Each structure stands twice: as structure tokens, then as C-alpha cells.
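Example record for the data management plan.
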Amino acid sequence: MNTVQLIGRLTADPDFRITPNGHNVCRMRLAVPGARRDQTPVFVDVEAWNKTAEACDRHLEKGRRVSVQGRLGHDQWQTDNGSKRQRHYIVAASVQFLDPRP
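Corresponding structural encoding:
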């Protein structure tokens, strides 16, 4: 089973783009609080697609609190100098806006 549910705050304004295939994608970074108040937050990348991406772009901004439900994604690539890179991120199935818009 590959499911993730997080609540956190956006660390920057969402980054909305249209892919070469014509799909909408909105990339965001969440700061998710630790289990205790004195713990450092966990920073997580999130991708929302299509209608969800459009809504995130229209209504979200840095500092807004959101709930994200989705699945864990993984990318691997090789840089021009030959080093290997990888990242994990959340592919959002739904994004709920928890704070009222300022």
C-alpha cells in the first residue's frame, strides 16, 4: 500500500507549470511539524496535477496550511557530470486548504 497523508505549511508560493504534453502541474514544498514541538520540521515536496494543480495555483501562497493526501513518488536521474541523484515526493490525490485566505 502506498498512501501518505500530511498536514503542513507551504514554504513558498506554489510553482505552476504546463507540461509539454499539456498537463497542469503545481509543485509545492511543505514544512511538516515534528512529533514534538522542539523537533525540526520535515520538508516534503508535493506535486498536484490537472484540476487540483489549478486550484492550488489560484488559492495557495507561502505560509498557508494544507492537508495533502496522495502517494509517494520517486525519481532517479544522472547529472551531466555523471553523478546519480534521486528524490522522493508526494503525488497529491487531494489538497485541502485549512487556513482562510488572508
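Summary line stored alongside the record: Strands lie at 4-10, 15-18, 24-32, 42-49, 65-78, 84-97.
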